[in-house]
Amino acid sequence: MPLLDQVRSDYFDFLRFPTVSADPARLPSLRDCAAWLAEKFGAMGMEAEIAATPGAPVVLAKWSQPGGGQRRRVLIYGHYDVQPAEREDGWTGDPFEPRLKGGMVVARGSTDNKGQIFAHMLGVAEAIKEGGAATDVVFVVEGEEEVGSDNLEAVLKARKKDLRCDVAVISDTNMAGPDQPTLTYGLRGIAALEVDLTGPSHDLHSGVYGGAVVNPIKVLTQLLAGLHDDHSRVTVPGFYKKVRKPAAWERKAAKDLGVSDGEVRRQAGSPALGGEPGYTAIERIGMRPTAEINGITGGYQGPGPKTVLPSKASAKLTFRLVPHQDPAEIAGLVEKYLQKKCPKTVKMKITRHHGGLPYFCDPKKDFGPAAVRALRQAWDGKKVHYLLEGGTIPIVSVIRKVLGVETLLVGLSLPDCRAHGPDETFPIAYLERGARMNRALLHEISKS
Amino acid sequence: MPLLDQVRSDYFDFLRFPTVSADPARLPSLRDCAAWLAEKFGAMGMEAEIAATPGAPVVLAKWSQPGGGQRRRVLIYGHYDVQPAEREDGWTGDPFEPRLKGGMVVARGSTDNKGQIFAHMLGVAEAIKEGGAATDVVFVVEGEEEVGSDNLEAVLKARKKDLRCDVAVISDTNMAGPDQPTLTYGLRGIAALEVDLTGPSHDLHSGVYGGAVVNPIKVLTQLLAGLHDDHSRVTVPGFYKKVRKPAAWERKAAKDLGVSDGEVRRQAGSPALGGEPGYTAIERIGMRPTAEINGITGGYQGPGPKTVLPSKASAKLTFRLVPHQDPAEIAGLVEKYLQKKCPKTVKMKITRHHGGLPYFCDPKKDFGPAAVRALRQAWDGKKVHYLLEGGTIPIVSVIRKVLGVETLLVGLSLPDCRAHGPDETFPIAYLERGARMNRALLHEISKS
């Protein structure tokens, strides 16, 4: 098989594993995918290992130049788990049967994160084949990123010696646009929780009881509507207390990205944008925290009407955080706020899901300039952008804490790759481009 | 087979048809059930007929005393369709496989309305067998009551001559309590609509777009939370304009029912009641209009978290109305209110479902006293209660309009029969009790 066909075939095999970490029923698929990855790393000439956890395993793979002595060592992190995906969410085909459409690969995980980590694997595989990578390398590919990386910290701690490195590299962020190389120097954090309300002990006839028995959906809409004021600011007391004010150069860099509010609106396909006054869309996404309702459910949802006064209503919430907000503290403030506002007509249960710290790392220091040079080379001299990403990669804070190194965020995803949405895509050409970037980056790091 | 076993066997067969009128896929079951009913009426010695409609058919059955001359004629109305029911709604067994449990029959439709119309069929069957009913009788049993009886009016109009009568009788309401015979003299009406919001054109990553793109669930919670003020009053302008003020004797009759707020709370299994100040629970249910959210849905609802900013959110709403509110007018006011409040960040689509007029009929006039005497006889001399029902039976207003007669509402259902909820029940003994009531009622009407 020609090399390019083999690469595509391997990438498609990778995408076919339905590695939805949020669904416990998918654990066998996650395990199969980890075994598949370990085999690939082995075939590359790396020393691969599967580290078991109480959940999905972590795949580790290392390579050192034989007799290389004291060299730079780079940790490359990625994840093989993906967000949930069902045909009825709006996919035009099976989310786990990849298709190539106009140069774009359509499949769940194509960009987040299988495509991006696979590009790094290609770069290292090529380098080893041609005599060796510019630095020693260790890959850490986990299977629980989409549900909070709960078990990764323990693995990093247990293998701390094996994983010692000078810097970490992650491609799990967006570029400013197609062929606009981008260094992401900050990420938002996250606090996630679920609110379950129970009113009557069973579903009631809304005619027979309506007006006297309080509907938990009504209470839920009131509690959730109260989370924002008329200026789209979050009303939870203390929420903004620790929010970092961006420097002037950061607001200029945000403007230099050239992503207008109209462009964000176009990508989202939204009738009109909203959000806090005084910020552009790109600033709201990068520099400001949010309260988001990711899901809501209650009562009858089938065809036609049903005159029911339901027993239960619930919602899934996430709060995106910026430095120096703390996920546990924010979850506590939200919980306190909701408990205080909740009327006695319903019982409330709050479940905390994963949290992740926000991240900020000065791009003008340490290995930042090396990353900028590598990005420029890989994209044939194009200007490199500086970005504050709205998403969360909790692991960067864990890497800083456990391994004591910073992370270079050199994403290969595009803003309209629909990560987490239906018909997620990745440009097939970025596999090769990403491999080039990987080799340039290891080379620049080796010289820094 | 002994007679009682035969009765139970027939009743259970009736309950086994999954006649969910809200689900278009169930239409064949509705047609089968109508054919089954027509056969039963025929076996009783009545002239039965199935009247086709664009939806579920209407079963008609008439009987006249041979050579009876000028006699009273009574129309008995019921419905063979039921509310949706799925195991996962909280049923302890198959909703369409009836079970007898401590004297109660558990099945969807056991009380609403299959059990109650079946009791009238038993009464008339017995009377015909013993030489003839006290009045001429015509049954009208439809299959679209739970979705608004859209096609019934046309059938009544087309068969107006066949259906001429002195009064109509319906058992599709609650008794005040077990063995407390009750005449219902009013019903709430209903206006139903669905609100669908679309924000972004596809589901987005809540990290990548959150803060700039407005979440349609957020907008929906704000719109719905705004439907009530802090005193549980509906905020839609003009909503209360035509609401009838109850007379002093009605508030006394409501009190005489002896249903305390605590009892309503116990039936509902609710932590605490709510509603408009200045009214008891039973008054809020009978005399006051409501705005109810019967269902809400949007975003991710599976296990665990998902960081999605969804494209769509929607809700099903019903408004319970009292005299002299008009369903079309109220639906119009609500639509206008929501359109005005809806921000430009989402697209709103409002779909109107069925409407039903509220009903009020003075129980001291016309055939009211005959009904009270019959109820007293059937329940061995017990005091008869006067009730304002919170539910809706749109057909009573149609009967008044098309046939020019009032309706006696002599329900056999109990407040905790869980009509519309999971594990709906009906006391098996009320089949016989209802048959007695039917015979006493026809007898009293024949003398009035």
Question: Could you describe the 3D structure shown?
Answer:
Two copies of one chain form a homodimer. In chain A, 33% of the residues lie in helices and 22% in strands. The longest helix of chain A has 19 residues. The first copy, chain A, has two domains: 275 residues, Aminopeptidase, CATH 3.40.630.10; 143 residues, Alpha-Beta Plaits (2-Layer Sandwich). In chain A, the strands form five sheets. A six-stranded mixed β-sheet of chain A has the order 1-2-6-3-7-17, sandwiched between helices. A four-stranded antiparallel β-sheet of chain A has the order 11-13-9-14, covered by helices on one side. Chain A has 13 helices and 18 strands. With 448 residues, the first copy, chain A, is of the alpha+beta class. Chains A and B meet through strand 9, strand 10, helix 5, helix 6 and helix 8 of A and strand 9, strand 10, helix 5, helix 6 and helix 8 of B. Strand 11 of chain A pairs antiparallel with strand 11 of chain B.
